[in-house]
What does this fold into?
Amino acid sequence: MIQTIPTKPFDGQQPGTSGLRKKVKIFQQPHYAENFIQSIFNALDGFAGQTLVVGGDGRFFNREVIQTAIGMAAANGFGRVLVGQGGLLSTPAASNIIRRNKAYGGIILSASHNPGGPDGDFGIKYNAGNGGPAPEKITDVIFARTTTISSYKIASGQSVDLGKTGVSSIGGMTVEVVDPIVDYAALMQQLFDFDAIRDLFKSGFRMRFDAMCAITGPYGKGILEGMLGAPAGTVMNGTPLPDFGGHHPDPNPVHAKELYDLMMSESAPDFGAASDGDGDRNLIIGRNQFVTPSDSLAMLAANAHLAPGYARGLAGIARSMPTSAAADRVAEKLGIKCYETPTGWKYFGNLLDAGLVTICGEESAGTGSDHVREKDGLWAVLLWLNILARRRQSVESIVREHWRDYGRNHYSRHDYEEVDAEAAGNLMKSLRGQMETLPDKHGIKMVDDFAYDDPVDGSRSEAQGIRLLFEDGSRIVYRLSGTGTAGATLRVYIEKFQPDSNLHGVETQAALADLIDLSRNIAEIQRRTGRDLPTVIT
Ligand code: VG1
Ligand code: CO
It folds into this structure.
């Protein structure tokens, strides 16, 4: 039965860097998720009879909202929903399914790397027909609709059996429950030399993949252990759990500590990797060799031609503004362009659609290519494996050679999490107020508030982060997170280029020590936020 249910707007349903993200408790309020989903539909047109893809990362509340989204898609006139079995789809797999099936768009339920469970976070994000996160011009309209909504439509009283694949119907709409892995695995097989990777494992090469009890467990097991012959047990924390087993599914050395410690120990395998809650991020660690995401982007770009999917070379590279300039050096050597975009994958979409870039990346452990329109954790792991299978060198020696050939961009991000939102706002305001007076002090050449003009559609995005650019190419960048759910998170990004290979052994925080001090003094972080030190350093 199709019902129209009266409702009232909720405050603050503004989608951030990647959709609407809030505490589960907030999402559990009656009509809260429905309001946002209806506002998405109200912001779109021309979808009658079309296909919508629906899936999520399996976190707590996923099962309920999946059914809601399907019922609302039926009531709003979609012709067909494709939903992952168990309500599961990794973010990159959802992007692939949207593209492959020429769907109108997709709804992805995830709060990505944020913790899950009843006291954790939940999220809803809309992806457009190109498979990528909705651009700002759509998310702005969605937000506008959330402020005026007065009712939503839902086909109620029925639910879909998500337990097995197959076709059924709800409120006159077709529902297809699809295998979450098959199409994605087929795409990976097209891009990478699976035979070479199989031979690598046969030769005794060993790895660990930490799925952090999140969505990539079944993908990792199916592809690494199933198709590529990695021994059983290669995938750790491989069963998706609604609360991620209490883990914080953010693949960095802090939250993937077990893997990190293993990789730094005597008994380390050759290669270690991890992904996040929804499978779009990646962490890469060689034996005794952590690879920063910014370096990983540069190294993948420099070696991508070794994989069949990229043998023709790259059209261009794109990186988010806070990501280190290591990729720029690779682009320069390859004679291709490197684009600098605001934080968030949605800004890569136009560049990818227009064929201007092939590989993109962010310092926050996201890398991907034109194969989908999301960052893709397992894709990065498989590209690394393809490169290792062809070069037959350790990760450490690949990294060292890269630094020798290109120089090294020392890089670190300092996060001050859950600080008082007003204090954080004032800190940014004060930095903006110093933009004129800072140059010429401390070796600073230029200060700006990063703005991006999209070369494809001409749209402009302003106030994307304060950049302090130094005479020697060093940078300090300040911005506020758009994905936190409590207070504000101040991110400070610090970078220093080191052309001299003699100093490559130097530890990152030591190499950056002066700039780190300066980053705290200039922004008066201690006085304004009460924090002496960051909560997370990556
Ligand atoms: C963070 C990262 C950003 C990433 C975004 C979504 O955003 O810094 O690089 O695109 O998360 O990633 P913010 O605004 O908190 O800095 V995910 O894995 O949560 O889709
Ligand atoms: Co994610």
Q: What stands out?
A: The longest helix spans residues 377-391. Residues 17-18, 112-113, 276, 280-281, 320, 343-345, 362, 364, 366, 481-483, 491 surround alpha-D-glucose-1-phosphate-6-vanadate (ligand 1) (CB under 6 Å). The mean pLDDT is 95. Residues 197 and 385 are 6 Å apart (CA to CA).
